[in-house]
Amino acid sequence: MEYGGGGTTICEVTITTGLQYRVAIEPYTDEEVIQFVRDFCAGLLDDQSSGENERGVPKEIDRALRNMTGLKIDRTKGPGGKRSNKDRAAELARTLPPESLRSEVFTLLRMWERTTTTITHDPGTDPDGKAWLRKIFAAVNKGQRPDVGLPRRITVTVPFRLLPGTALNISVIDTKGIDGSPLRPDLTACLENPRMVAVVCSSFNDAPGPIFEQLLKQAIDTGTSTTAFPRIVGLALARSGEAKKMRDDGEFVRLEEDGYDLQSRAGRGRAATLGLQRRAGKRVQRQQRRPRRHPRSPTGKASGNATRVRRTHRANWPRNRPPHSGYNPLPEGQGWGARLLRQRTTLGLSQKASAERLGIDPSTLAKWERGEREPAGALLSRVKRFLDEEEESKAIGPVLGTLQLATP
Q1: Least confident of 312-321, 353-362, 385-394
Q2: Mind listing the domains of the chain with CATH numbers?
């Protein structure tokens, strides 16, 4: 099947296990295709008038419509190696008024001939099923089959398990590309489905990436974070040699494995910090909306026992999590090390857990706490965010910010 660095598949693609190779297509309706044609033509007219395509359709839809209508872009190389492009659709737009242009493009689609919705592999005529699947899927995905309409959803069936060697029978869903906001019904359904794991891909240096962070924010804002966080996984895709360009304490790492480990911890730290900040922010907003009533005072006024901490809490702290009163027997520190030590003990975090949240090595945090070094640069901003965090009654989740690194 086709793959690329984004903008490859035209629609949502589901891969599942069955008896034979098969491609099933759920096409858009004629009314929906007409709307795509209007947007496509509007983009052509914008190009003609201002040179900027303010409207139009996503590039995957644009590619399919051009192939289905024959209005392709011809790319040629002239004398001296100079390349030139000839846009058939743009030339048509220059010769027709807007309404006639839309009518002509829709006619060129020949929708009445595009009735095929299922294509099944025949081993008798083509023994290589995987090669057949690759060829058929590419043609359907790019709009190159004259008998298939514009796909809304494609289901690919393969005659083998997607997780060989296990008893699990899973399906893989490649959602439609995220060009803007990830707040879409199909992605929301993924987050809310307890049987689904969401894998969000990003470039190596941007991990976990803005889309991953927006999905975490959405889960927090909609109240689904408790169940959704363990099922959101970030996948950072590294190019060849990219991991060795990572710096640790100002120096390039020696091994690629060290680069992967460093970026993995940094990504997990950014994701965890984001989660805590969002939850703390909502908590502060709730407190501002209504005054908090003291548990022992029906009038809501603080009594003389407002800051009292039970002896059992003091005896068990910091072996257990700190009490919700926020009591911390450590004195307020002045330097970065003392402040970091007090904050992580207030949050009930080990040195290792705090280092992961900050995206640094535990030995680096230990040096900061001992006063041997101080955070600087980008790390300083992470430390400031960490010091501003508030403890929440529930943990962010055991797999929040899980970051897997794919080697080239």
Answers
A1: 312-321
A2: 30-113 (no CATH), 178-295+332-408 (1.10.260.40)
Query: How far apart, in whole angstroms, are the C-alpha atoms of residue 211 and residue 230?
Result: 17
Q: Which residues contact 179 (CB under 8 A, 6 or more apart)?
A: 58
Report the distance separating Cα 226 and Cα 292, nearest Å: 24
pLDDT in tens, 4-49: 555 578 888 999 999 999 999 999 999 999 999 999 999 888 765 5
Are β-strands 12-17 and 151-158 bridged in parallel, bridged antiparallel, or unpaired?
A: parallel
Can you tell me which residue has the tokens 């398990």? 161
Cα angle: 204, vertex 210, 214; to 5 degrees? 140
Question: pLDDT at position 85, please?
Answer: 85
Q: What is the distance of C-alpha 388 from the center of its chain?
A: 26
Q: Is the dihedral of CA 39, 43, 46, 48 positive or negative?
A: negative
pLDDT over 90, % of the chain: 26
Residues 271 and 401 sit within 8 Å (Cβ to Cβ)? yes
CB 172 within 8 A of CB 15: yes
Separation CA 182–CA 312 (nearest Å): 47
CA distance 14 to 16: 6
The chain-wide mean pLDDT, for the chain, equals 75
Amino acid at 140: V
CA distances from 68 to 97, 113, 151, 187, 378 (A): 21, 11, 12, 29, 49
Tally the C-alpha atoms within 13 A of residue 353's C-alpha that lie toward its C-beta: 14
Give the amino acid at 315.
A
**What is the C-alpha separation between 286 and 279, in angstroms, rounded?**
11
Band of pLDDT at residue 182, cut at 50, 70 and 90:
low
How far apart, in whole angstroms, are the C-alpha atoms of residue 381 and residue 385?
6
